[in-house]
């Protein structure tokens, strides 16, 4: 396995006296990479303890969570059911018409079903979940993104793993549903801080989400984190030539590929904050590469070109 903690020698960090490191969570488990594996860890234990043989979840057509849950089902012997936001492929089009994420999920054994956007908005409603379980049979239900109370301790374990290798002042992570950030927050100690870079537009609600998750998992809200909502590049999975250019340049300088939905925005935001003097001189900042590189296949399909 490659070294999980890498020095990132960006000129702006050197100029501002900040030591920048990158934790490669995408390398921890190559068969189930990134933060999704951490979110699933204790959920899979609970599913087994409760006697479930099937896992049911929700996601978009290019979802990292859908990809991860399908892989987890194959690896750990669960049947998996994915309720996908959007329209099904045209009749008679066959598997080839599935995008790369859903094609791989199908190859991993996931049964795909599609929900129109109106139905999908009801995904957390108890009566809607009851309808789905009546339709598909007993299953352990995971929310969109895999974020729930049991996801938090799995993500919290990452803090100790990083601390074993280096002292740090701040951990930085991309934020979608808030679960990974909430987990990090509960694992911090002393003066350690976490910061989240929102990957979606209008991410102000995430403060409430993180507070709610830490209340569920640890019985309290925390003040040792900040959220930054200015680096979404137009919204979730939106195309941006500036962002893609940054990802290409970052890979050329550091030999690390970022993804265009989460980690590209994270590192862009962290470097911008360093340039603005957000971190005091002498700080050690660890940015977390949460994986998500499977998204590149779908990105190329939609927009053409490549990551390199």
Short description:
Its cofactor is pyridoxal 5'-phosphate. This protein is α/β, with parallel strands linked by helices.
Number of strands: 10
Ranges with pLDDT <50 over ≥5 residues? none
What's the CATH topology label of the largest domain?
Rossmann fold
The secondary-structure class comes to: alpha/beta
The general outline is globular
CATH A-level architecture of the largest domain: 3-Layer(aba) Sandwich
Beta-strand percentage range: 15-25%
Q: How many domain regions? A: 2
**Which bin fits the share of residues in helices?**
40-55%
**CATH class category of the largest domain:** Alpha Beta
Distance N to C terminus: 23 Å
Spatial order of the strands in the main sheet?
A: 1-2-10-7-8-9
Number of helices: 12
Mean pLDDT: 92
How are helices and strands ordered from N to C? EHEHEHEHEHHEHEHEHEHHEH
Describe the biggest sheet? 6 strands, mixed
What is the chains' assembly state?
single chain
Radius of gyration: 19 Å
Describe what you observe in this structure.
Residues 13-291 form the Tryptophan synthase beta chain-like PALP domain. It comes from Hymenobacter lapidarius. Its cofactor is pyridoxal 5'-phosphate. This is 1-aminocyclopropane-1-carboxylate deaminase. The active site is at residue 63. The chain is α/β, with parallel strands linked by helices. The chain folds into 2 domains: 5-31 and 149-303, Rossmann fold, CATH 3.40.50.1100; 35-146, Rossmann fold (3-Layer(aba) Sandwich). Helix content is 41%, strand content 17%. It contains 12 helices and 10 strands. It has helices at 11-15, 35-49, 64-76, 100-107, 117-120, 126-136, 151-163, 179-187, 206-218, 241-254, 263-275, 295-303, and strands at 5-7, 19-24, 54-59, 79-85, 110-115, 140-141, 170-175, 193-198, 225-228, 284-289. The chain has a 6-stranded mixed beta sheet with strand order 1-2-10-7-8-9. A 4-stranded parallel beta sheet has the order 5-4-3-6. Helix 2 crosses helix 7 (151-163) and helix 3 packs parallel to helix 4. The longest helix has 15 residues, at 35-49. It is globular and about 60 Å long.
């Amino acid at each position: 396995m490659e070294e999980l903690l890498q020095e990132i020698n960006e000129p702006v960090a050197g100029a501002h006296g900040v030591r920048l490191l990158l934790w490669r969570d995408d390398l921890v488990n190559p068969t189930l990479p990134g933060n999704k594996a951490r979110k699933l860890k204790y959920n899979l234990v609970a599913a087994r303890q409760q006697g479930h043989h099937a896992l049911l979840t929700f996601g978009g057509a290019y979802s990292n969570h859908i990809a991860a849950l399908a892989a987890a089902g194959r690896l750990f012997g669960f049947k998996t059911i994915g309720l996908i936001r959007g329209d099904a492929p045209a009749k008679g089009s066959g598997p080839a018409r599935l995008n790369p994420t859903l094609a791989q999920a199908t190859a991993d054994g996931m049964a795909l079903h599609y929900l129109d956007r109106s139905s999908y908005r009801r995904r957390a409603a108890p009566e809607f979940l009851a309808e789905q379980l009546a339709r598909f049979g007993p299953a352990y239900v995971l929310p969109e993104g895999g974020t729930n109370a049991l996801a938090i301790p799995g993500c919290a374990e990452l803090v100790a793993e990083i601390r074993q290798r280096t002292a740090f002042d701040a951990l930085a992570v991309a934020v979608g549903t808030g679960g990974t950030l909430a987990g990090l927050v509960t694992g911090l100690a002393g003066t350690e801080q976490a910061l989240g870079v929102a990957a979606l537009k209008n991410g102000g609600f995430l403060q409430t989400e993180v507070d709610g998750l830490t209340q569920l998992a640890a019985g309290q809200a925390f003040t040792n984190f900040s959220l930054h909502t200015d680096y979404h590049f137009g919204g979730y999975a939106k195309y941006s030539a500036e962002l893609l250019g940054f990802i290409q340049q970052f890979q050329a300088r550091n030999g690390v590929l970022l993804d265009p939905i989460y980690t590209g925005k994270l590192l862009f935001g962290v470097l911008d904050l360093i340039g603005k003097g957000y971190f005091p001189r002498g700080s050690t900042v660890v940015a977390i590469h949460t994986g998500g590189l499977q998204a590149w296949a779908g990105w190329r399909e939609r927009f053409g070109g490549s990551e390199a």
